[in-house]
Amino acid sequence: MQEYLQQLNEAQRAPVLQKDGAMIVIAGAGSGKTRVLTYRIAYLMSQGVDPFNILSLTFTNKAAREMKGRISQIVGSSEAKNLWMGTFHSVFAKILRFEGHRLGYPSNFTIYDTQDSHSVIRAVIKEMQLDKDVYKYKQVYSRISSYKNSLITVKAYFNNAELMEADAMAKMPRLGDIYNNYVERCFKAGAMDFDDLLLKTNELLTRFPEVLMHYQNRFRYILVDEYQDTNHSQYLIVKALSDRFQNICVVGDDAQSIYAFRGANINNILNFQKDYDDVKMYRLEQNYRSTKNIVNAANSIIEKNKTRLEKIVWTANDEGNKIKVNRTMTDGDEGRFVASSIFETAMNNQLNHNNFAVLYRTNAQSRAIEDALRKRDIPYRIYGGLSFYQRKEIKDVIAYLRLILNPKDEEALKRVINYPARGIGQTTMERITVAANHYNRSIFEVMQNLDKINLKINKGTQGKLEDFVTMIQSFQIFNKNQDAFQVAEHVAKKTGLLQELKKDGTPEGIARIENIEELLNGMRDFVEEQKELADTTGSLAEFLEDVALATDLDNEKGDDDKVALMTVHLAKGLEFPYVYIVGMEEDLFPSGMNMNSRAELEEERRLFYVALTRAEKQAFLTYTQSRYRWGKLIDAEPSRFIEEIDESFLEYLTPKTENRFKTLIDADIFDEVDKSKLRLNKPKAGTPPSKGPSEAQLRKLRRLKPVSSDTNKNFDPKAANLDIGTMVEHVRFGKGKILSIEGKGADTKAEIQFENGGLKKLLLRFAKLEVL
Ligand code: ATP
Ligand code: MG
């Protein structure tokens, strides 16, 4: 046996050595799923499979790079260069560069990031003269996004009365028209948004059989990590590509499915066996990551979920310390506790800071932790906040670079046409935009033909516009035989961006210059790495694609000696010796927005399972008695998840406090409600994720008092003034009308038709309804 295969246990070796066919590896956290994929690729290559024929899809590009690095060590780096590895978005963006012309896209199409998409939607809403308080752009975008991920095109939307009605009920009857305008606008700008990368790939593979055949032949071996979190659009792509050879290996853990809110569909994992002929199912049971205490505690948590596949996870690792639970008075104290604990642990054990991670449920929680770490001079890095590439000065440079490749890119053009200031005003741009719409051309094309159309723009301004066009064209020529770094350096100088910032002279201005320098350094590294690892030239086009799809996890430098701060969602697949899970409070973790059904609560529990299983040596759970939320100090209750852990794995550093919502925790409150929910509320394909509570609802939520068990037993709907026809308001579902009441006392249930379209059956003692 080759030496590297001995670095696997027998259960791991089995899927690695099965060269052909469809297989699924379902296994708990830390059991080596990602390792199996990595070694499987190495093995395939050792069996003569051309790396050119292997496609591997990962959750982050960083994970792909690490896998590639490991494979290079085993089989040699020149062999590994031709492997296709990356996220769904990055891999299919590449394919669309080759094939997008069939759908009318230029090969140098721009990838719009979320900010760009938001900006286009705002412009569309404004041009349609719709009320921006009714048509909130973020909400509109998230609906459009969920349609795209369910493959509901504009045409399909207008053929679907139900969807149109749902949007009308949500007071957005023009949503379809916005969708249509948004799509047209992006198309005209030669741009795809993130969801298009999947949607258009699907379109390509269904409309052009020869293209499908080409990529089926090319990707004879397909591997997918974190399969539990694929959405419908991704699922269909994998299915189509692997249909011919059926050499597909997916790995995942249903217990770690945490992206349902973004359309991930756990059925993809559950139905895998039906999708392919002769599927082999493998299970891994031994965890190599964590101590016995952590593994067993995590098992005791996930057992509480009813919807799950039975799995065994055990470890031969040491018993380890118990999980430490700590309570503080405020979130400030919580931050200080974490900081001093990290300080001491690092000191006592002579550890680098990158052995530590602080995980939280929501980004807003990072501030208190940051403050405390800063006071202690502990270096840290936040992931998932405003990423480097979202900073203004960086976006400015990138906008110029985008224009070089695709001058039709409207968002980029609007950003820099008058920055640095060149005396091209708003009115001029509006005139040009109107002309562009009229001639159905891009703004840049109109600017190139100003002498042919009469736009009432004075000679001086016209000259400035022409200068801008000439400048971009000169960059395009420069770009022809220079690499990404050289082009960017040239652009930063010639556009006057750097001079502008130097003139500024403020500390912010200086910080901006430094950031641009950092960008240039990064580009230089990129060019070198690209030549080294991927055998390409490091062109501007390659760089921009990398940037458009970069998450800041991707930019992590492994040698950074910093504490990692991130949300639990981002931590999936990662591991750290010491993990602090902060904000272990009811309404926060589990999130108050995700406690209305068993399904939602179970997703929160899976999220907690993910958090806990990131820890190798030691886990800490911290909570506070009061916390600032929504600008107010509120009383907090310890999370039910702490109590759900078998007590023998816990060590309380501070006296244990009871959760006053105990009735809610112990009672199987969702059982009956859920059955009706399953029937009534089964989400239809394309139903957008329900929106979060409004400000008013949140205010109400804050006022809620714990329910005492006595009132529960004697619950009387009449005394609460509830009857058929009563109009009520629910903290989450909004206003609704009671259609029927059934059951008695504590079991009384009401069927309520909510205005937002939902019909729900709720157990009244928990529903917290307000009579209107
Ligand atoms: P997750 O569900 O969190 O994504 P996973 O199942 O993908 O976890 P890996 O990340 O592949 O698990 O492995 C967890 C850790 O255990 C890694 O550090 C890995 O290198 C190590 N490991 C896995 N298998 C073995 C083995 N056979 N021998 C030694 N170490 C192993
Ligand atoms: Mg993994």
TrEMBL record:
Domain UvrD-like helicase ATP-binding: 6-291
Pfam family, one: PcrA_UvrD_tudor
Catalyses which reaction(s): Couples ATP hydrolysis with the unwinding of duplex DNA by translocating in the 3'-5' direction; ATP + H2O = ADP + phosphate + H(+)
GO biological-process terms attached to the record: recombinational repair
GO cellular component: cytosol; DNA helicase complex
GO molecular function, one term: DNA binding
EC identifiers of the protein: 5.6.2.4
Binding site for ATP: A27, G28, A29, G30, S31, G32, K33, T34
PROSITE patterns the UniProt entry points to: UVRD_HELICASE_ATP_BIND, UVRD_HELICASE_CTER
UniProt keyword annotations, A-Z: ATP-binding, DNA-binding, Helicase, Hydrolase, Isomerase, Nucleotide-binding
Family of the protein in this entry: Belongs to the helicase family. UvrD subfamily.
Protein name according to UniProt: DNA 3'-5' helicase
Source organism (scientific name): Marixanthomonas ophiurae
Lineage: Bacteria, Pseudomonadati, Bacteroidota, Flavobacteriia, Flavobacteriales
